[in-house]
Amino acid sequence: MTRIAIIGGGIGGLTAGIALQKVGLEPVIYERAPEFGEVGAGISLSPNAVKGLNSIGLGDFLEATANEPLHQYLFHGLTGEILMDINRKDCRDQYGGPYLQLHRADLMDGLIKAFGQDKCEMGKALSGLSQDEQHVELRFEDGTTAEADIVIGVDGLRSIIRDILFDTPEPEFSGHVAWRALIDGCKLSPRATERTNVNHIGAGQNLVTYPIRGTKLVNLVALTRADGWVEESWNAKAHPSELAKVFEGWADYVIDAISAIGEDDLYRWGLFIRTPLSQWVKGRVALLGDAAHPMLPYMGQGASSAIEDGVVLGRCFAAAADPVNALSVYENARVERAAFLQAESNVGGDRLQAIDPYFLRDNPPKDEDALGIFKYDPASVELA
Ligand SMILES: Cc1cc2nc3c(=O)[nH]c(=O)nc-3n(C[C@H](O)[C@H](O)[C@H](O)COP(=O)(O)OP(=O)(O)OC[C@H]3O[C@@H](n4cnc5c(N)ncnc54)[C@H](O)[C@@H]3O)c2cc1C
Fold it and tell me: Of the candidates 133, 142, 97, 109, which has an alpha carbon nearest to the alpha carbon of residue 37?
């Protein structure tokens, strides 16, 4: 049997692992962290991703765990006026899968259980690899080595595998900053825990809230701009008063949400981007997820596209004549789609955070349907 090593046990690595198991393979995940930790944030999964997860057996888990927003509302950040009501309740009929929102830790839990914790080698930080025509040798920071026939690099934005394969420039600060917090649902107005996604937009910044775990928690994400990223770490704790200052003068809903954030519960992320790659595969090694195509979060497609990659990868192994050919079928099937999502996501901030929110209302950009984002089904898309 083909020995497959997956480097990185995030959403992309675990999805790829499950998809490969579904076609009879037994991949091993090597994860740098000593254990899977609690990730304090929510995540949206659009219908394209949900269809993919359903196809590898996670449908019941998602139905039981996730919230399904019925509307996505855009409000004028300063006045609080409603600008757009985007229907999400018809996604099942329209696209064959729902739009879902859940706690990241719950999604990770579901994926780990489905893949099998015992098939994850924890505390294994890859430090190097070399390949010849027969196999790949993996080297880890703890001095150990392993051998595989195929390696899938799902080691995130700062992927060491991408650097080894393609020697591309370092990630660059995008000028965008994300602030994230989970708020106790009881501390907010009933509107924050309705089955909706509430987005307040204004010049150069916006703030989104949606409930997760029923109405227990509200996920808050604010996206703002900065000239540079000087913090030592790319994510750091921040005080709610700093965010309050950035949103001074905004609508009551925004001010109330920020003042409900616990002192210790706010994090700030510098968002980094990398130049798009036209090639993800070299010999017996392929990239997947953020390692291949990191994108800004304005269309909520980073994890969703990693899920698409993983599901398609599994199908390629089932369909191809040999494992190396499977990687090339995977690359052909995915590069164009991911580059498109990356490009749309990276300009999404400029569209959404227009100088004048009324302009957005009067000139709505192409929606996900017109862009074909939700229609895509990784479980049935044609493999070239
Ligand atoms: C503010 C914000 C909001 C977002 N919201 C959404 C959303 O709503 N919907 C959505 O679809 N996407 C969203 N995203 C994007 C999404 O989080 C990422 O695209 C997704 O998590 C990428 O998954 P991944 O598995 O490719 O990489 P990662 O999640 O980065 O996982 C990489 C894994 O590899 C491990 N690793 C790294 N280096 C090594 C090594 N050398 N050896 C071994 N292991 C290693 C890491 O520890 C990690 O576990 C958001 C992103 C941000 C910043």
Answer: 109
Instruction: Write the pLDDT tens digit of every residue in 23-73.
Output: 999 999 999 999 998 777 999 999 999 999 999 999 999 999 999 999 999
Ligand 1: centre distance to CA 83 (Å): 32
SS3 content of the chain, % helix, strand, coil (to 5): 35, 25, 35
Name the pTM for this structure.
0.97
* Per-residue pLDDT tens over the stretch 119-130: 999 999 999 999
E strand residue ranges, 285-361: 285-287
Ligand 1 center to residue 11 CA distance, Å? 7
33 lines ligand 1 (CB under 6 A): yes
269 lines ligand 1 (CB under 6 A): yes
Residues contacting residue 48 through CB under 8 Å, at least 6 positions apart? 95, 97, 304, 308, 373, 374, 375, 376, 377, 378
Q: Residue 334 and residue 363: Cα distance in Å, rounded?
A: 31
Domain boundaries, the chain: 4-171+274-371
- Tens of pLDDT, residue by residue over 148-161, are 999 999 999 999 99
Q: Which residues neighbour 137 within 8 Å (Cβ) at sequence distance 6 or greater?
A: 129, 130, 131, 145, 146, 147
C-beta of 308 in contact with ligand 1 (< 6 A): no
Residues 6+ apart with CB under 8 A from 235: 267, 268, 269, 270
CA atoms within 13 A on the CB side of 209: 27
Active site residue 210: yes
Ligand 1: centre distance to CA 8 (Å): 9
Judged by phi (left if over 0) then psi (alpha if -120 to 50, else beta), residue 132 lies in beta
Q: Which position among 95, 210, 298, 330 bears the catalytic label?
A: 210
Please tell me the CATH code under which domain 4-171+274-371 is placed. 3.50.50.60
- Model confidence at 370: pLDDT above 80: no
